[in-house]
Amino acid sequence: MTSEDQERELKKLEVFAYKNLKKNSIISIADGAVFAIGSGMLPVSTVIVYFISNYVHSNTLIGLLTTLNVLLSNSPQILVAKKLEMLETYKEYFIKVALLMRLMWFLLAIDVFVFAAKNELLFIILFYIIFSLQGFFTSFANITWFNLILKLVPERQRSKFFGIRSSIGGLCETFGAFLMGRILRLLHFPYNYGLLFLISFLIMMLSLYIASMMKEIPIKKPKKKIDNKHYFRSMFLILKEDRNFTYYLLSVLFIGALGKMPFGFQTIFAKNSLSISTQHVAVATTILLFSQTVGYMLWGVIGSKYGFKSTLLISALIFLPAIYFTYIMSSVEIYYLSVALFGIAQSARNVNESNMAAKLCKEPLKQPSYIGLRNFLMGPFFAFNSIIAGSIIDILGKNLLFLISFSCMVLGFFILCFLVKEE
């Protein structure tokens, strides 16, 4: 395929995208809204961590749960990036992997109902395995979905689209957190959590049905076979040839991974220092999701006017007081405040981190490689920051943890501010 042929295909795709923009946007926003209700019931940093802490009492092992899930939801994306570069359509593949991702919540519900009270050790082992698999299938679903959206939503419309979708999704997540608090009252522990997983699974299945209604046309791509060794070598050449992208990855490392180490333990710190209850966790989850919704609205406006980089810089500055309030944790109100600041700051990264990576890629057909490489390299750091943080707390105490976190956040801010160029 010649460069003229590729240009012609991209132009045809752009015409199709604009023609079907309204319909596909409404469907995707509806899908996101329904999915957000289900996911709003199950935030890892509050509900999942609080639930498993009733069975596992080591901070390191609690951190391992998050580590496995985050690692597997990011790093394996590089395995599917090559496939996505060759696929002419994404929707069918997305539906397959998204279905597997959702089935893991159903299996967790079965695990709770069958084993939680009868065989605690088997229950914990299965919980860790299934939750890890949920992360693995999430990695395939996320990169496929994002590339589908890049294909169906023109670049000039993406900031608006993601802002609206994330804002509505945030409100629905808050509603999901509200439902979570009600559902947990219906049955005794631990079966109330089994019911929570089951209901979330059913809601997420509805969202998948809605997503299947999106319209997509195939885009012709070069018919060439590339062996895995050559492909992965070419991916890593990006780091050598694209210095701007490499600096961006360093900023992600220090801000998005190492700088955020204490936040996975916000609820544990509050539980140990303030003896919070399940209802306190429900309130904190609601605050987290509501603050993220406010953030999505804020970052949508700032991103449209000033670019993705500005939102990531401001969010890094907001992370700093969030770290401080997580450290002092002197009252329930301080706990809520630290969660709110974290939610506002994190929402910028949720919306614009992948958009920033895609924008730094100069060739549209290479976007899966850029996104897959970013998540492959950053995945271990996203994942192991929890287990490293737990080990630091257990061995050296939390003071050193917060000092490292604060320093990394500041360093990442300066790298992003002065070395990364948003072109």
Major β-sheet profile? none
| Assigned CATH class of the largest domain | Mainly Alpha
Number of helices: 17
Unreliably modeled segments: none
How would you describe the shape? Answer: globular
Strand content: under 5%
Overall structural domain count? 2
From the N-terminal CA to the C-terminal CA, the straight-line distance is 28 Å
CATH topology name of the largest domain:
Growth Hormone, Chain: A
Q: Please state the CA-atom Rg, rounded to the nearest Å.
A: 21 Å
How would you state the average pLDDT, rounded?
86
Give the beta-strand count: 0
GO molecular function: transmembrane transporter activity
Domain Major facilitator superfamily (MFS) profile: 245-423
Organism: Caldicellulosiruptor owensensis (strain ATCC 700167 / DSM 13100 / OL)
Keywords: Membrane, Transmembrane, Transmembrane helix, Transport
Structure description:
The chain is mainly α and 423 residues long. It has two domains: 8-223, Growth Hormone, Chain: A; 225-422, MFS general substrate transporter like domains (Growth Hormone, Chain: A, Up-down Bundle), CATH 1.20.1250. The chain is 82% helix and 0% strand. It is built from 17 helices and no strands. The longest helix is centred in the first third of the chain and has 33 residues, at 120-152. The radius of gyration is 21 Å and the shape is globular. It starts with a helix and ends in a 5-residue tail after the last helix.
